[in-house]
Amino acid sequence: MDRISIIVPCYNEEQVLLLFYEETEKAVREIETAECEFIFIDDGSRDHTPEILESLVYKDKRCKYLSFSRNFGKEAAMYAGLQHACGEYCVFMDADLQHPPSLLKEMYDVLKNEGYDCCAGFREDREGEGKVRNFLSRNFYKVINRLCDLNMSDGAGDFRMMNRAMADSILEFKEYNRYMKGIFSFIGFDTKWIPFHNVERAAGDSKWNLKSLFKYALDGIYSFSTAPVRLAGSTGILLLILGIILGITAAVRTIFFGYALNGVMLIILLILILNGIQLLFISVLGQYISKDYMETKKRPLYIIKKEKGF
């Protein structure tokens, strides 16, 4: 009999965890030809999430959990869950029930009977989300697809079931700075998409605010594209050419037509603009250098404080 490993990153999810377990356990009962294991990863929660997970381990032998020593982020939690998964099939799910457990049976049937390596949920809409967040999310994927040689679309998230070959390929990526959506696209494999409608969290508050989403977006661009560095170089060349043209023009106007150069304020304004652009692109280069610096340290992606059920 096949085994499906359900990997669930958790961060301060005390209000929704039991409901998630009940709904998902009900859904996996419909999969008659496979058994399931639940792998919960407590990503340094500060509420009662660890206690709830421990109670689930005692209640159901299929439940296991890892508890990080601090918050290492969802990407690290997904990687840790995949490392500890024993199933022939692995699925990533969020604990907030925005990933419908009812799709698990269909996903398994697709992988088992249709020859796909991965079956992923595709969110058709963003109903219930704010207009600003919706606008930024849609346009982020347009930008990142132009910058990176990858195919990532708005609506394609982490909710997906994959076979062991694809799971092992993801585990080959050892980098410290991880962007799972980019990794999914980079490794390829045949994927079937199942559409579903967005639903609001069953309980609790989202851990993703605009600041964290913006940082996550930049991590994705820096992890899979060198376009910002090329843009910095191209802009530098354009500014150099523009400076030469303006210098020649000013010299010609002064020598042949007797025009005096514009005032001090214009010079100060140009200095401020050019220095601002220079500092901006130094920052871009610094981001790549800092990420390479973190990679060379070879620090662990996560540290486990406690584990149960393994």
From TrEMBL:
Record's keyword terms, sorted: Membrane, Transferase, Transmembrane, Transmembrane helix
GO molecular function: transferase activity
Membrane-spanning residues: 237-260, 266-289
A GO CC annotation given for this chain: plasma membrane
Entry protein name: Glycosyltransferase involved in cell wall biosynthesis
Domain Glycosyltransferase 2-like as annotated: residue spans: 5-169
